[in-house]
Amino acid sequence: MSVDELTDAAGEDENTIAQAVTTTAAAAGSYPVAPGYRLNVRSGPGTGYAVVRVLPEGARVQIICQTSGTRVSGPYGTSSVWDNIGSGQYVSDAYVRTGSDGYVAPRC
């Protein structure tokens, strides 16, 4: 039997299992954007920075680190915390449901 033919006891192949574990881990470490909002992603932690893209309604984000920036009011309160979601990509924490008014990730 080759490695490609390996299956678990339930009959699922190795790639399917790995993909399910990766998807579950990503979902567990991500946070939802407020329902009904298309969220601007900015190049820095503030409203004065350029919009680099817009997240669609129903998006989830993985927070790499957090920093302070422009104070913003949104559906989850008023906050000066900004979430870094990628290289040169920041969103206001006031639009992300983290379950906390403070930091939930390391500081940038």
- Mean pLDDT equals 82
Gyration radius from CA atoms, angstroms: 18 Å
Across the major sheet, the strand order is: 5-6-7
The percent range for strand residues is 35-45%
Main sheet makeup: 3 strands, antiparallel
Assign a percent range to the helix content.
10-25%
Q: Number of helical runs? A: 1
Number of DSSP strands? 7
Helices and strands, in order, run as HEEEEEEE
List the uncertain runs. 1-28
Rough outline: globular
Measured between the Cα atoms of the first and last residue, the distance is 48 Å
Structural class label: mainly beta
Question: What would your notes on this structure say?
Answer:
With 108 residues, the chain is mainly beta. 14% of the residues lie in helices and 36% in strands. The strands form 3 sheets. It has a 3-stranded antiparallel beta sheet, with no helix packed on it. A two-stranded antiparallel ribbon has the order 1-4. Strands 2-3 form a two-stranded antiparallel sheet. A hairpin with a 2-residue loop joins strand 5 (65-74) and strand 6. The radius of gyration is 18 Å and the shape is globular. 20% of the residues are buried. The model is unreliable at 1-28 (pLDDT under 50).
